[in-house]
Amino acid sequence: MNMKCFWVGFLLFCGFFVVGFCDQDGFLSISCGGNTSYIDSSKISWVPDGEYVSTGNITTVKNSGGTSTSNVPIRYFPNTQGRKCYKLPVNNVSSLVLVRARFLYQNYDGLGKPPAFSVSLGRAITSTINLTTNDPWTEEFLWSDNKETLTFCLLAIPDGGSPLISSLEVRPLPQGAYASGMGDFPNKSLRKSYRINCGYANGSLRYPLDPYDRIWDADKNFTPFHVSTGFKIQRNFNLSTLRESPPAAVLETARVLARKEVLTYNLPLDTLADYYIVLYFAGIVPVSPSFNLLINGDVVQSNYTVKMSEVSALYFTRKEIKSLNITLKSITYYPQINAIEVYQIVDIPLEASSTTVSALQVIQQFTGLDLGWQDDPCSPTQWDHIGCEGSVVTSLELSDINLRTISPTFGDLLDLKTLDLHNTSLTGVIQNFGSLQDLEKLNLSFNKLTSFGSDLENLVSLKILDLQNNSLQGIVPDSLGNLVNLHLLNLENNKLQGALPQSLNKESLEIRTSGNLCLGSSTMTCNDVSSNPSIETPQVTIFTKKKQSGHNHIAIIAGAVGGAVLALILSLAVFLYIKKNRSEVTYTSRAAAEMQNWNIATEMRKWNAAKVFSYKEIKAATNNFKEVIGRGSFGSVYLGKLRDGKLVAVKVRFDKSQLGADSFINEVYLLSQIRHQNLVCLEGFCHESKQQILVYEYLPGGSLADHLYGINSKKASLSWVRRLKIAVDAAKGLDYLHNGSEPRIIHRDVKCSNILLDMEMNAKVCDFGLSKQITQADATHVTTVVKGTAGYLDPEYYSTQQLTEKSDVYSFGVVLLELICGREPLSHSGTPDSFNLVLWAKPYLQAGAFEIVDESLTGTFEVESMRKAAFVAVKSVERDASQRPTIAEVLAELKEAYSIQLSYLASFEHGS
Ligand SMILES: *[C@@H]1O[C@H](CO)[C@@H](O)[C@H](O)[C@H]1NC(C)=O
Ligand SMILES: *[C@@H]1O[C@H](CO)[C@@H](O)[C@H](O)[C@H]1NC(C)=O
Ligand SMILES: *[C@@H]1O[C@H](CO)[C@@H](O)[C@H](O)[C@H]1NC(C)=O
Ligand SMILES: *[C@@H]1O[C@H](CO)[C@@H](O)[C@H](O)[C@H]1NC(C)=O
Ligand SMILES: *[C@@H]1O[C@H](CO)[C@@H](O)[C@H](O)[C@H]1NC(C)=O
Ligand SMILES: *[C@@H]1O[C@H](CO)[C@@H](O)[C@H](O)[C@H]1NC(C)=O
Ligand SMILES: *[C@@H]1O[C@H](CO)[C@@H](O)[C@H](O)[C@H]1NC(C)=O
Ligand SMILES: *[C@@H]1O[C@H](CO)[C@@H](O)[C@H](O)[C@H]1NC(C)=O
């Protein structure tokens, strides 16, 4: 395919300075709709386009260019087809490329209606092609976007007919070419308006005369007596001073005025826009002409002198012009110009943040919806279902599909102002929206949501909240009053009851409540709720697992808890609800009574490991909930002191509508069974009336998140060896959950704020609110409603809903990345590319580029130790779960990294 310099005549002609450019290195010439490869008369190799495009129909048209008529293939795109894009490989991402596209209609369809359409390159819509005006039509661009693929698309316009294309060419240009004078225009691409070989009238020149295959058009307004042909570029002539220098064949002709007068080019432009102008001058005549240069009447260079035997160029940009008048006014000798290039400057829109893009891709994969087809959700055109402001995705509308669960991925779309998920079969708790600080409109109507959750109160910008026609139960949470901007709250047709909280009693707020069980003023008489059995029936999905070695276990899937225990507690809750006024009932004896009904004596024995506290005891221990030491997603944590003097952390759930009972029971149940030095120990619990309280051992060191990011962050005290020790500890805890405990347990919410430290900086994993046990010893995965924390969530789990231990490995990989980089998984500062820690850090760490390691660690770590930790972190966040290591493998690697760092530190001790 590579053709070295051939053509002897050419060699003589262009001399030494072209040798080496003559092969077609990096050239890509695509015959659109073609079915064979061939070599044309300029010795350029053409290939068919099948590899680069996946849609469109092909046909041939008669091309009556020149003297002969030939059949030329084209590809056209009927408008029923969505994607009309070519994906072109870019061999060298840092280089500028020339892209040339040719369009040919020639009435191939016999309709006599030439189409009009737009074309885009990457994110930029570059031009509109109107084949009524010109047929054929050629467009040419200079492009650089540091991308490995260049997407070239045809975009239909209303009543424009079917877009079509006949050829596409890509030519690499030298790095740094056409950069001079472009300083004021970052992130721009250039669209060719003119490229004139001044003083030459006999057709256009291109490859191989121009090694970069620019096409230099004849000087159309050429007047014979100005001709300067006959000059030869001398061997000592230096072309290499200019990266974009025209080839010798172009420079050896010039437009020269015979008298000391005025030389003018009048160049009409097709669009009012900003333009980039390059003028080339070569000292080919034996005198040095001097002249003043004017562009649209302004003197842009006075007394410009062309130096002999040298090529030079002048670069200009002109804003908002519609025509160009280039005038040379003689001072000495005759004015002269050798070549002119004029380009329209095309804006390349900013990229959408990679966090947003990956979240949308996950949503697209999960929903099976085809949201869009371009690389970027906002440019050149917005994806379906999405709205953008500039490069920022501000709305997402996904109604009338089967979404089932509110995924944490929605929480990654940080700039959303409007989110419409009406009629998407959502069930369960309203959650995972907490990070959407800009959200103004949230439409969750016509779903099957059952409880409010605690995320809504974080939506500080919320103006309209539409929850009508759901299955929301219980009372309306007081915390909705925190939404100061809320002016419409639609709660119609739910199963809500009780009085509306005082906090919602605002003039600015319209609340619609009709169609609920019993919602409104407190004096309302309501039906006895307990007589309506449908309300309190525990909703547990039970499935029998496949027959296996003769046993028939029952695995409980929904509700994240052993089913019998859940049923027990829920029925207990019903019991307590009915007997509200007699809440002194002791928990254990009631439970024992219920136990008889459910016949789960074996389950109950496990419960005995944790102590049951009364609410009175809890109040006394916490000194009436005096000292808050933390606040989590489910409630606040208070410092407490038991009667024996032991300090405890008391986690009280605010749980006004009985939500989250399952996760509470789940946590108690799991924690009471497991004991491990790297897992926070449950001392006991309290479940009286509506109270859900967990009593844990107290860890005075706070959480890893506090250390890394807290207001009084002690990051500096977190040396690399300490971080490794913490990582090893936490991995040991997780390893026990995955491999040591029976049943095996998947934590599901591994994150820095769930890793606590004691006085000696030993780390323990806590918060088992979302954990799930694998009841079948050999089960490889469970299908579950997706839960977790934005930024830590395994993308594969999200898209497949298949939960495995590898999801914890992913989240733990994120924790490792945080330890290495000292930053949070999602941050809304910095450049869009760095929002998502995983996407940002992975390529650096893979390349061993440790400049992204937390600044406070600089110079303190042994590189091999860092390399090991970074490698295992990167492997852990592989998108493909099967590529991730197991937690046991992670632990082994971390132990090694730790011991390498230890011996490194020891070597200093000995050395000093
Ligand atoms: C290629 O296309 C031409 C018409 O453009 C057709 O005559 C020829 O049969 C095709 N060849 C193959 C191999 O498809
Ligand atoms: C384009 O091709 C498809 C099949 O390849 C065919 O069904 C369709 O009718 C064609 N459209 C036009 C406008 O020729
Ligand atoms: C294309 O050009 C023709 C003639 O100049 C004009 O009538 C037509 O409106 C143009 N089409 C579009 C879509 O601009
Ligand atoms: C890419 O192009 C630049 C300059 O044109 C060159 O320095 C670099 O070596 C090229 N890289 C590759 C991989 O070809
Ligand atoms: C140019 O684009 C890059 C990458 O998209 C971006 O980082 C940079 O801020 C942009 N520069 C300007 C001036 O917009
Ligand atoms: C124009 O170029 C053609 C071939 O490219 C050549 O045959 C012809 O003589 C040239 N005409 C003039 C006037 O130079
Ligand atoms: C172009 O500019 C020159 C000098 O400013 C002026 O004399 C000439 O009339 C202009 N031509 C047109 C067509 O505007
Ligand atoms: C123009 O510049 C040349 C060389 O730079 C100088 O010799 C000449 O005097 C200048 N002419 C005018 C009119 O300034």
In short:
The chain is α+β, with helices and mostly antiparallel strands and 912 residues long. The chain is built from 16 helices and 48 strands.
What does this structure look like?
The chain is an alpha+beta fold and 912 residues long. It has 5 domains: 20-173, Jelly Rolls (Sandwich), CATH 2.60.120.260; 192-347, Sandwich (Jelly Rolls), CATH 2.60.120.430; 354-531, Ribonuclease Inhibitor (Leucine-rich repeat, LRR (right-handed beta-alpha superhelix)), CATH 3.80.10; 606-697, Phosphorylase Kinase, domain 1 (2-Layer Sandwich), CATH 3.30.200.20; 704-908, Transferase(Phosphotransferase) domain 1 (Transferase(Phosphotransferase), domain 1), CATH 1.10.510. It is built from 16 helices and 48 strands. The strands form 12 sheets. Strands 1, 2, 3, 7, 10, 13, 14, 15, 17, 18, 19, 20 and 22 form a 13-stranded mixed sheet that branches. Helix 5 (563-578) packs across helix 9 (661-671), helix 13 packs antiparallel against helix 15 (863-876) and helix 15 packs antiparallel against helix 16 (887-911). The chain starts with 7 loop residues before the first helix and ends with a helix. Mean pLDDT is 78; it is low at 1-22, 522-608, 655-659 and 775-779. One 2-acetamido-2-deoxy-beta-D-glucopyranose binds at residues 92, 94-95, 174-175.
